[in-house]
Amino acid sequence: MLEKIKAKLMPLLIVSVLAGGVAVIAMRGESKNVTVVDVRVPQLSPVALEGRALFKANCASCHGENAGGSDKAPPLVHKIYNPGHHADEAFIRAARMGVRSHHWNFGDMPKIGTPKRDVLKIVRYIRELQRANGIFYQPHSM
User: Fold this and answer.
1) 35 Cβ contact partners less than 8 Å away, ≥ 6 residues apart
2) How many beta carbons lie within 10 A of that of residue 44, not counting itself?
3) How far apart are CA 1 and CA 101, in angstroms?
4) For all residues of the chain together, what is the average pLDDT?
5) Domain encompassing residue 66
6) What is the pLDDT of residues 106-120, one digit of tens each?
7) CB of 45 closer than 8 Å to CB of 17
8) Where are the alpha helices (DSSP H) in 32-140?
9) Based on the domain organization, do 54 and 122 belong to the same domain?
10) How far is CA 27 from its chain centroid?
């Protein structure tokens, strides 16, 4: 009896595993291309306005207008970059030293030659955009 059940379930198991593998491959291929998000831009603080100008000059060519992403780099207005997962220091280090690709399939981010005081203004701009779009500090669950 057990052998008959196994014989009936084996084809279903094989199809399920294959379908799951195809889904993973398809998602991996799309993850680079499905990255542009609509960003609501709030009224910005004076520091964030300075950060916006600096972002446009240093970051927007890859990360898109208002940090909404592009086909070159991910959106920074995304839950992955909430302050509980990527603190401000992570942005500072990425800009100053570059960062290896780890969440997206865009390749490594090169370092940019922006002074830390300017990167802090850019981070302020990104954080204000994030808050306006419902991205807040989310502590890691235990």
Assistant:
1) 69, 70, 71, 74, 75, 104
2) 16
3) 51
4) 83
5) 46-132
6) 999 999 989 999 999
7) no
8) 46-58, 60-63, 88-97, 116-132
9) yes
10) 15
pTM flag (> 0.85): no
Total domains, the chain = 2
Task: Measure the CA–CA gap between 48 and 124, rounded to whole angstroms.
Answer: 5
Under-50 pLDDT residues of the chain: 13, 15, 17, 19-34, 142
Shared-domain flag, residues 62 and 98: yes
Residue 78 φ then ψ, to 5°: -155, 145
Q: Which of 39, 55, 32, 70 is nearest to 125 (CA)?
A: 55
**CATH number, domain at 72?**
1.10.760.10
Please state, in angstroms and rounded to a whole number, the distance separating the CA atoms of residues 23 and 13: 15
Those residues whose C-beta lies under 8 Å from the C-beta of residue 108, and which sit 6 or more positions away, are 98, 99, 100, 101
When computed from its CA atoms, the radius of gyration of the chain, rounded to whole angstroms, is 20
* Two structure tokens written together for 133: 């779009």
Alpha-carbon gap, residue 9 to 5, rounded angstroms: 6
